[in-house]
């Protein structure tokens, strides 16, 4: 107890006596049918003495020997109930804590991590941060701080040899990768993307999470200055015949390969130097309210968390977060960059207004996807919702996979609790 140092010795003895009587009662309930008549009498005598002395409020000098005698009796009669080792007590504590946490997570508040940037800039998914001459690589102390404050983890491919750097690319311009099995926190099985660079023909690899989508932009920026510079470089290399077709495995340990082309990246490195290095900043982590949707209907404009197990166009059982834009009966239309609901520009969230005005980092709503092409009006059916990402140009949302069944609505975001950025606080 916080003020235990100021508690008198007699009061501590009384508290201890009450605790021992509670233990004795538990032992009695579990073991009394196994005791002999003499055991029962001894138990009643020892507990009776403690109760009588508590009633008389005797001091610690008198009470402590009586407690010790009771403890010895319980140790002899308690079997597996008492005495209990610290291991058993710790296991019981952990199990009870797990039950409480699972109950809270299932019925009240659930932690959720934003994996992608479909809701950017309202919520951030994983982002890559590169380094330059004006922004040098953080040292050990800064790296530790960035890990604690922003969840920043370093990724690097180190040159195994000295020479020119090359890599393989898919025909659509993405750097080629293989899906590999890995472990999260060294325990939980997961899958990652593995990218390979070649230095003087010798390979060096790095791995990133499957949901990390910044890798190609990082490569384009670091080696070619921009996406436009990358496109120009590839076109020139193609005209010079400097692209050699090859095959790469699609998935580690599985049959099948994908077509790719290999080309030099116009950079030389020394052995032991980084070919590419960057930090991955964790996505926003927030608490989701799982209670309110049991009592009130989801409202247009709120953040919207739902399960995907009944959405045919997704095909996986996951949790997604988008913004709710349509409830049953609503008619929706996108007139780039404005989203219309029932014939008028949609209202109910700041993100709607900012997208309509292409304000700041909000780029407006786009007619990408199959369900809301230009001139198309979509009606939300009964027992369904329609959800879009705030980052309409880079969001796989209802435009691609359709409606969310009402039964799969989970809740709304409450609070961004990590990382400790300017977005920390109440969810928008």
Please explain how this structure is put together.
- Mean pLDDT is 91; it is low at 1-6.
- The protein has 9 helices and 21 strands.
- Strands 1, 11, 12, 13, 18, 19, 20 and 21 form an 8-stranded antiparallel beta sheet that branches. Strands 4, 5, 6, 7, 8 and 9 form a 6-stranded antiparallel beta sheet that branches. Strands 16-15-14-17 form a 4-stranded antiparallel beta sheet, with helices on one face.
- It has 428 residues and is an alpha+beta fold.
- 30% of the residues lie in helices and 30% in strands.
- The protein has 3 domains: 4-77; 127-281, no CATH class; 285-426, Umud Fragment, subunit A.
- The longest helix has 23 residues, at 9-31.
Topology:
Blueprint: H1 9-31, H2 37-56, H3 60-77, H4 86-107, E1 109-113, E2 127-130, H5 140-150, E3 153-158, E4 163-169, E5 177-184, E6 188-199, E7 202-209, H6 215-224, H7 227-239, E8 244-249, E9 257-269, E10 274-281, E11 285-289, E12 303-307, E13 319-326, E14 331-335, E15 338-341, E16 344-345, H8 350-356, E17 378-379, E18 384-388, H9 398-401, E19 404-405, E20 409-418, E21 425-426
Antiparallel strand pairs: 1-11, 2-10, 3-10, 4-6, 4-9, 5-6, 6-7, 8-9, 11-20, 12-13, 12-20, 13-18, 14-15, 14-17, 15-16, 18-19, 20-21
Helix pairs in contact: 1-2, 1-3, 2-3, 6-7
